[in-house]
Amino acid sequence: MLSGTSEEEKKEGLSMSNFEVLIVSKGHPYDHNAFIAMFEAFEGVTATLVELPAAIAVLAAPSAARYDVVFFYDMSGIPGVGLTHDDTDAGGQPSREYAAAINALLERGTGLMLVNHATVSWPHWPLWRTISGSPFMLSEGELDGRRVPGSGYRGAHGPLPNATVQVSPASDHPAIAEIGDGFEITDELYLKTADFEASVMPLLRADYAFVAENFSPPPLAPAEEQATWSHPPGSNLLAWANAAGNSPVIVSELGDGPATYENPGYRRFLAASLRWLASDASRAWAREWRQSRTGSR
Q1: pLDDT band at 94 (very low <50, low <70, confident <90, very high)
Q2: Per-residue confidence at 6, pLDDT binned at 50, 70, 90?
Q3: 39, 188, 232, 273: which could join 175 in a potential S-S bond, CB 3.0 to 4.6 Å?
Q4: Sign of CA dihedral 230, 257, 186, 182
Q5: How many other CB atoms are there within 10 angstroms of residue 250's CB atom?
């Protein structure tokens, strides 16, 4: 559980004792009970989980304004994968209702958190990549005007298993104020291009060699691409903060399964991230961050 709130945190506007989180899921298997148990351990957090496509109606309703944070744990928007759960069209674009609901969140300034497989959702929807800030590519293609390879993958569902890494704080952001020098964790890792770091606020890094020989080819890429896949050395950034519209955003590639859900260091990071995203301080940060990045992706 979260420890007591410090005087410094109160000054930063992080002392909200109770707030509501809407969890959006579907499209990727996970241990539901272990996942929910993690949220139940967080003091002051009321979490409601709704699966797609029902989540579209919840997000589109005026009552969506009650939620302080929306936590995305779905894998959506990938043509040919899970078309029955997210109303994706054949070109990988969302329905008008879903796009309008997401834009309403950004206009309202609702805190958003994208975790694990949600960071690779909607690869053909420009707004989602703006929200996530992630350069992850499910296959070779164009990214920011240049051709890049599909991103590497290391995880329980592929040829190479999850890796154990030491995670260290990468800034003095409030979301990582409670993790000390970091923590060890075993989880999925992704190999992606490194230049995206200039557009986000680094939060967590791994002491791991992010090079092609430590990763598998992207599992959803065509067979011929997998057979010849290569990738330049990539970023070791595992979590970062971003801003989209009026919303503060935290993205965490960590978060695949029970070993992560139960990790004390990860729980401290997640709880502090949610608390920050629910605060007025995070929305002020989003405005400042967006203004400082005017002209960048």
Answers
A1: very high
A2: very low
A3: 273
A4: positive
A5: 27
The amino acid that residue 153 corresponds to is Y
pLDDT bin (cut points 50, 70, 90) of residue 83 is low
How confident is the model over 144-203, as pLDDT tens digits?
899 999 999 999 878 999 999 999 999 999 999 999 999 999 999 999 999 999 999 999
Percent helix, strand and coil across the chain, each rounded to 5? 35, 25, 40
Tokens for 80, please give them: 């040919």
pLDDT at residue number 291: 87
Residue 73 contacts residue 39 (beta carbons within 8 Å): no
Pairing of strands 183-187, 163-169: antiparallel
Which has more confidence, 30 or 16? 30
Which pair of tokens denotes residue 28? 């990727």
Contact by Cβ (8 Å): 167, 204: yes
Residues 6+ apart with CB under 8 A from 68: 16, 19, 20, 21, 110, 111, 277, 278
How far is 189 from 153, CA to CA, in rounded Å?
Answer: 6
Give the CA distances from residue 89 to residues 17, 77, 127, 139, in Å, rounded to whole numbers and listed in that order: 41, 8, 16, 19
Taking every pair of Cα atoms in the chain, the longest distance, rounded to a whole number of angstroms, is 57
Dihedral sign for Cα atoms in the order 173, 59, 78, 25: positive
Query: Which single residue is written with the structure tokens 């293609």?
Result: 141
Say if residues 139 and 95 touch (Cβ distance below 8 Å). no
